[in-house]
């Protein structure tokens, strides 16, 4: 036997042995990759009765296929179903997961408009005032608490995340361009955010050409995600689009219009043949997706389990905190470790608590119980460098600990005695102090603060006209102050890591 043939035989033996050695071979890794499809429906049209029947047909078809979808229901849609005594629709949708899609959807003003000039606390309170009644009606009528929220149209606003935390609503599910993290699921304000995903598929319903295009796009998404080790495809429709020619809200609320209810008009309907084509296209598409063994349909809450936050409630030893501190730079952003990720706000809390305790964590690790929001107000500038003695720095750390516990957010200004400094510079100083403590076993004599910036803010869009292109907004609508507030909340953004 030649040496070459002997080498080939040994290679073959080694490849066969890999699974026994606990080392997955490439083929096994590819087979184990999972693709999860979140199929969701913005269930919103409360004007056209045919949209009730469309929601019923969707729910019954998917139940028959063994698929649970997520129906994001508008508050007024739920109330309308009750008024119309469409208990058949309610019962059919209850077999799926219920999300929330605002109280009135397009009745002016929509969320981005009424929140555009509000700050964090007053904005969260105003969102809750206007939207909580609809959320509660949806829960009451469908008998289950909505698991997710997504904005009407492109009327996104950061303050909605604050209200969701109050409601214990775990998932933000929608499509848009206001923020995103490399096209992947992420956490923002402590909420799993399925938004601006690379593989968000919105396909036509006009027959074979649309079906072939949809199949090709899904196949490409599936292949890309399998190569990455798994991930999510987000697919969405509206029940009303199976039966109408034009969206109901565009007919009534276009360009800022706000007619009284007695003047609301029903949208024009599709012909029976057009609707039949839409149903045939959709049903064939869903069956095509279901045909892949490695593809699994999941609801919003199931996605939250797949991407559960493994940093929350985790105890951190002194060595782990040392490793966290070592990754902090003047470009403040999130950290990704082996099986968990930390938002900048979480790193801030851990290091501040470590420093406030004088670095004494050997007997009792620090548990991350908070997912604080970002600052509510703009940061003060830091001109040059500032050096303070250890006594002042550790007293400030104790004060910051108390602030975060009471307000559950990163302070906009950190006070070193009479000197105001920005929280990003303070975080970098915390990291340097923590590193010094773990190296020397004692605190440094002084700490120097240097200029830094929140690099994570780059994941949130600047205010630009394309964000507000929804037909409902009045011409020229913009929200620069609100998007600046959203960038401050980038202290909370971090990757969501797939658990399976």
Which helices and strands appear, and what pairs or packs with what?
Elements: H1 3-17, H2 26-32, E1 34-43, H3 49-64, E2 70-73, H4 75-83, H5 87-94, E3 97-100, H6 111-115, H7 120-142, E4 148-149, H8 159-167, E5 171-173, E6 186-188, E7 191-194, E8 200-201, H9 208-228, E9 230-237, H10 248-253, H11 272-290, E10 295-298, H12 300-306, E11 315-316, H13 318-326, E12 331-332, E13 335-336, E14 341-342, H14 344-356, E15 366-367, E16 386-389, H15 390-407, E17 414-416, E18 419-421, H16 423-440, E19 446-449, E20 453-454, H17 480-488, E21 494-495
Parallel strand pairs: 1-2, 1-9, 1-10, 2-3, 4-5, 5-7, 8-9, 12-20
Antiparallel strand pairs: 6-7, 6-21, 11-15, 13-14, 16-19, 17-18
Structure description:
The chain is an alpha/beta fold and 500 residues long. It has 17 helices and 21 strands. Strands 1, 2, 3, 8, 9 and 10 form a 6-stranded parallel β-sheet that branches. Helix 4 runs parallel beside helix 7, helix 9 (208-228) packs parallel to helix 11 and helix 14 (344-356) packs across helix 16 (423-440). The longest helix has 23 residues, at 120-142. Mean pLDDT is 92; it is low at 1-31.
